[in-house]
Structures are given as C-alpha cells and as structure tokens.
Amino acid sequence: MGARPLPLRPDGFGQILPTPPELVNRSLPTQDFLPPPASTTYTAKIADVPDAVLKRSTWQAACPVPSADLRYVTLSFRGFDHRAHTGELLVHKDAAPAVVKAFGELYAQQFPIEEMRITSPAELDAPPTGDGNDTSAFVCRPVRGQKNWSAHAHGLAVDVNPFCNPYTKDDLVLPELASAYVDRANVRPGMVTAGGPVVRAFAGAGWQWGGAWKSPVDRMHFTANGE
C-alpha cells in the first residue's frame, strides 16, 4: 500500500480512479508499529510528547499550537483482524481526555480500526497514492484546498479510517481510490454512520462530525472546534 503515486489533477490532488477490487470491502490486518497491549482490556495513557516523537511528527515552530500544548496519547484499538493493537495520537492537551474516552467506547463496541499512528513529514509531502487508512489527529497542515490552518494543526480533530469514510466535495474524493465507500447504503466494517458508535462517542464529548456537513462532506473527520 502507498507505493504507487497517482497522476495529479490541476488542483494538486491525485486523479480519482476506481477502487481496486481488493479494497472495495477493505479488511486489511494491522501492521504493529508499537508493541500490542499485554491485556485485552482497554488501556490508554496521556503523556507529554517525547522529543523523539515530536521529531518524527509534522510539528514545527510555525505551527499554530506550541509543542508544550500537545499530548502523546497511546491507546488500545481493535483491528480488522479482531486483535488488540496499540495506537498513537498527538492531540491538544484540552482534547486528550475526550479522545481517550471516545476510543475507549469504540474499543468496547469492537469497532475496527486499521492503523493509528502519527503522520510523518515524509508522508505529508509525498505524492498521493489514494489508499491511506491511518486514523490520526495532529497534522500541521492547512484546511484542504485553503490557506488557513486545519483543526488538525491545532490538535483538535481526529480522522477515523479515512479510506472507509472518504471526504467528498464536487468531483473530489479523498483518499482518491476510495470511491467505493462513497456509497453509504452499503455499510461495511470500519464505516462511520449517522447515529453509529463513532458519532455517538464523539458527540458525547461535544465534538462535531464532518459527515453531517453539506459541502464538503468529511465522513472521517471529528472536530472539537467545528472546523
């Protein structure tokens, strides 16, 4: 996955191509980035961001949030392989407890997540491949197609299973190979649905769901500040 860059559109995004047959009902096993939890019980830890973690993240001095206001969250999640794994997120210190609680509810509901790791600068700057499915929070980038900072750049947003819950606006689909998941009537594991466990978990913390927006429709996106 992620090895074949897509031809670019004039807007800089990759060309929107049909979903490969093997990803129409995506259910890939998780590749462990961190050691899996020792217990099947949900565990989570909120800590100051270690220097090594900050260095491999997209944080830089120009970002709109000081590094001291970010927290390193490690937590249990269930993969599509039905096993427990350890994920990592960078979030704003004020958002960390809500994020831990929301993902605890998803763990109890056995909602599957493919991977959960911090976005690196290389990934942020790489040509689009259109097949990513990393659940992530802090990424120091602007709003898609704009110049103002995204809620992700403040550590106040989480994207859940992006491939299963694509962003759409006009003819744009992100990730670019995820068109099969624009059909929300065909409910498959990992999809965020109105009134479903993911929406309920984040709504309980007062967060908004981008899947309820009219344009764009950002089905992967949960935000503490409405952006």
TrEMBL record:
Residues 145-223 form the Peptidase M15C domain. InterPro entries: Peptidase_M15C, Zn_M74/Hedgehog-like. GO terms for molecular function: peptidase activity. Pfam families: Peptidase_M15_4 (PF13539). It comes from the Bacteria. This is M15 family metallopeptidase.
